Amino acid sequence: MRADARRNYDRIVEVAREVFREQGYDASLDEVAKRAGVGPGTLYRHFPKRENLLDAIMQSWVDRVTETADKALAHEGTDRDLLLNWFEQYVGLISQHKGAPAKLTSAMGDPDSPIRTKCQVLAEANDRVLERLRQDGVLREDVEPIQVCRLVGGVATIADSSELDAAAVRPMLEVVADGLLR
Amino acid sequence: MRADARRNYDRIVEVAREVFREQGYDASLDEVAKRAGVGPGTLYRHFPKRENLLDAIMQSWVDRVTETADKALAHEGTDRDLLLNWFEQYVGLISQHKGAPAKLTSAMGDPDSPIRTKCQVLAEANDRVLERLRQDGVLREDVEPIQVCRLVGGVATIADSSELDAAAVRPMLEVVADGLLR
DNA sequence: GAACAATACGGAGACTGTCTCCGTTTAGCA
DNA sequence: TGCTAAACGGAGACAGTCTCCGTATTGTTC
Questions:
Q1: Statement to judge: residues A40 and A54 lie in one domain
Q2: Which residues does the UniProt record annotate as the domain HTH tetR-type (chains A, B) (predicted)?
């Protein structure tokens, strides 16, 4: 990649991160281009679809996901606390900007999604937490890990669109956690 | 209301129901107007916001909600079955077209939403089912009815955006139901 | 049944966002 | 320094939302 292309690429990603955080997933891409000081053509050449841009933004996010799961697994306390804590972290991770919970959760099951690999990392982090509980023998056997992602993703999606705070989300996560443990 | 206005109003609602079912909540309103044989001005005079049109469409839906809850309450079987059956009906009711689960669930908590009264009917139906279980003493006490709507609405939203079928939704509803019962 | 408000219609067009095409510019190599 | 492949960027096509306002229709009054 040529130096000027690299420069523009980085600048667009940087600006997009900012704009998406401010205005949510639906922010105008021409606006992103303008703020980055490039033409729309340049933006669309680098990122043909909105999701390609989202994908690039999420590079640093991926690292945080793994790290967060590590921390959750190191958590001292009951299994229920462990799970609940992970769920809260999970919701936080996928709720970085408006519209994100729905996008990430549906991308998880879509083989054609450009951000699928990123979501896979999240799914794997979730697997690790569930596997730990399964080994402790406290997890019900008949639920697949992806269903758990969907349940928690569903809660996050509703919280996002209804603008609920963490305090309102907690009881819902408790219900899901209690439904999963035996 | 003048006769011609009435005629157009009814026609727009009829056509919109069709178009929304075909193309989801995001269908073009000018397209609705065109198919109804009226100008966009006419459509927007009758329905200034997209949700006003949705509201009108939902008139008949409201009756079905109450009826469905009645049937669910008449259901013979265990409390768990009753709840699970209601949840499945609930998901069906709010998943009439693409995008609807999210809209309906977030409208439920939004005092300014034009379709709030319609959602209220759904919330009340849900209340009746939960009240029945509460009287049987099988429901955990610390969860508010609206949280239950959000949980089930969250599942429906994800199912909608991931295009899951009823078979994939069921286990998630089981988790929620088991988390709610004690 | 003619005249006249009041009411409603509908389409042109302003505005916003998406995305492409292609003439122009630039980087980097020989 | 000159050349060419790579990249730029903006004009503009296209689609959707929504409004304004001149025109047409309704139904009432005499």
A1: no
A2: 6-65
pLDDT digits (tens, 9 = 90+) for A58-96: 998 999 999 999 999 999 999 999 999 999 999 999 999
CATH of the domain at B11: 1.10.10.60
**Strand, helix or coil at B181?**
strand
Q: Can you read off the two tokens belonging to residue A107?
A: 């991308």
> What is the domain range of residue A158?
50-180
The whole-number pLDDT of residue A114 equals: 86
Q: Among positive and negative, which fits the CA dihedral A32, A161, B173, B89?
A: negative
Distance CA A70, CA A72 (A): 5
The residue type at B175: V
> d(Cα B155, Cα A158) in Å, to the nearest integer?
9
HSE value, Cβ hemisphere, 13 Å, CA-based, for B136: 16
| Statement to judge: residues B22 and B99 lie in one domain | no
Q: Please judge whether B175 and A150 are an interchain contact, meaning their C-beta atoms are less than 8 angstroms apart.
A: no
Per the structure, the count of domains in chain B is 2
Cα within 13 Å of Cα(B180), Cβ side: 29
**B158–A contact, CB cutoff 8 A:** yes
Degrees, nearest 5: CA angle A45-B26-A155: 90
- Model pTM? 0.93
Within 13 Å, how many C-alpha atoms sit on residue A134's CB side? 11
For residues B36 and B43, is the Cβ–Cβ distance under 8 A? yes
> Are residues B104 and B169 part of one domain?
yes
- Asked if the Cβ–Cβ distance from A102 to B178 is below 8 Å, we say no
Same domain, B10 and B66: no
Q: Are residues B38 and B58 in the same domain?
A: no
pLDDT at B114 over 90: no
pLDDT of residue B15: 98
Q: A105 and A25 share a domain?
A: no
